[in-house]
Design goal:
Helices cover 67% and strands 0% of the residues. The chain has 270 residues and is an all-alpha fold.
Amino acid sequence: MTLRPASLSLQVAALAFVLTGGVAAAQSAGKPAKGPTITKAIVKEAQAAQAAIKGEKWADCLAALAPTDAAANKSPYDEFAVNELRLVCAARSNDLATAERSLAKGIEIGEPNGFMDADTVKMRLRQLTQLNYQLKNYPRTVEVGRRAIAADPTNKDLRMIVAQAMYLIPDNAATAAFIEPWIGELEQRNEAPQELALGLWASACVRKKDDACTTRALEKRARYSPDQETWDNLSLLLLRASPQDRTLDVMRFSNEVGSLSESDQVTEYA
């Protein structure tokens, strides 16, 4: 028997920007019902961008906003409004790198200045985590994802994205240390762990050559989503770790789960 990492399907749902109010909100970014408005420093550029959005001319929108980067005397709300407009246009034109910068900047400005409420910040952090994963910026995914999890601790999708990002860095120790307590939290809430999370945990333990860690992960996998590979690997680890006077017990277990297949082991068990 050979101990090997479980096969993994590292797929995450396609990114979907669910912006508050959609394009309509961007078209009126400079005119909130209450609160601050944009200043003369960027008003012409913002109006041009809004017109481009209305006509679904995303490249024109980004071009119209470009001069605002060098504009003097901008207010915090000017910066916020520009990034909201740029985010819509970048996302619609599939310029994900620009969308990521705009989304991050919007949170950076919007949260401390009160331009975003707590629910919007939570949503945007989730989007920023997803976007960085899609861009394959895995360290940044982990960084932002931890903030997103702190704001939304029971969100399984966020936990899964962060775990996958850690695994792909690859940071096997961090992956195992992140998933194991999460599995414990799920069990405390009487929720079954996802098969992918269990597979990532076991695979990370194998990668870092930690038999104790691998055994704990495989025991959980055997409990929630057992397959023959899991039983085979768990049997091998138990045989490695057990003292001589417990070998027969481990072989009896291996036989019961169908993992006692090599002729020398069958002979020894008999």
